[in-house]
Design a protein that fits this description.
With 272 residues, the chain is α+β, with helices and mostly antiparallel strands. Helices cover 28% and strands 29% of the residues. Strands 1, 3, 5, 6, 7 and 10 form a six-stranded antiparallel sheet that branches. A two-stranded antiparallel ribbon has the order 2-9. Strands 4-8 form a two-stranded antiparallel ribbon. Strand 11 and strand 12 form a beta hairpin. The longest helix is centred in the C-terminal third of the chain and has 39 residues. The radius of gyration is 31 Å and the shape is elongated.
Length: 272
């Protein structure tokens, strides 16, 4: 699932307004930074005779790239045909990971190319291998990159919360747990009524846990109340804190439960 803008459109990780920039290009190229802008009257221009035509783009964030959109809307120029996409998490580098080779249609509008397998990329290299037409100049109007960043991917894993069991673990009656007697015979452990002080301690613990849960805001509700788009990083921290607190509380309840089970077993064996 691609990250969305607050207005509902796809988030472009190769937009200059988001912090993306062109780091390198072949020496014959002019206006390489224009492919990251919104001005449709500006473009990257290359002589068709240039042997190696490429551009290296630094994305606004480390991104799990899913779709790349490339466009040439200039009518009196040659347009791209075959091209290659390469990616890397560091730059400069001599080792690039291939994202695929593609063949575009001979048209003057934006064309989308989906990667066969999404890849984590911070730097994108576009090698322009061939072109349509026989004009003197070869142009490229825009490059857009869509996908999800690390924070968005983390939230996808954290937000879906599994349904809680209808019967809590602590509500199980330890007296109903059978134990093995001689010759494999199963006998029922007699029920042992907990003392009043134990009941009061358990009630106090449950009350404390309830207060602790109430003190932590529900970040998932906060996310659902926000418009679609980027989720603030402090909300991610709240979710992580809630997960850790939940684990701590569950561990405390489990420890008390095991202690109570062991105490009742000892009492039950003493009565046999």
């Amino acid at each position: 699932m691609a990250r969305l803008e607050p207005g509902g459109g796809e988030y472009n990780y190769a937009a200059a307004s988001k912090g993306a920039k062109v780091l390198a290009h072949n020496k014959e190229a002019n206006g390489a930074a224009n492919i990251l802008g919104k001005d449709k009257d500006k473009y990257l221009r290359n002589p068709c005779s240039a042997e190696e035509k490429f551009v290296v783009i630094e994305l606004s964030e480390e991104t799990l790239v899913d779709v790349v959109e490339i466009a040439n809307i200039e009518h009196y120029s040659s347009t791209f045909k075959e091209f290659e996409l390469l990616g890397s998490l560091i730059y400069p580098t001599e080792i690039w990971v291939s994202l695929g080779k593609y063949i575009a249609g001979n048209s003057k509008h934006a064309q989308r190319f989906m990667l066969s397998e999404p890849k984590w990329v911070r730097y994108l290299k576009l090698n322009l291998l061939s072109h349509y037409g026989s004009e003197f100049y070869f142009t490229l109007s825009s490059v857009k990159v869509y996908g999800v960043d690390a924070v968005e991917r983390l939230l996808e894993d954290l937000i879906p919360v599994p349904e809680e069991s209808s019967v809590p673990v602590s509500s199980a009656n330890p007296a109903e747990i059978p134990h093995m007697a001689n010759e494999g015979e199963i006998v029922q452990v007699p029920s042992v009524q907990p003392k009043a002080d134990n009941i009061s301690k358990t009630d106090a613990l449950n009350e404390k846990n309830d207060v602790s849960r109430d003190a932590i805001p529900d970040p998932v509700k906060e996310i659902r109340q926000q418009p679609s788009g980027r989720i603030p990083s402090d909300t991610v921290l709240k979710i992580l804190m809630q997960k850790v607190r939940s684990l701590e509380l569950n561990l405390s309840v489990l420890e008390d439960y095991l202690q109570e089970v062991n105490r009742r077993r000892r009492n039950a064996y003493a009565c046999l």
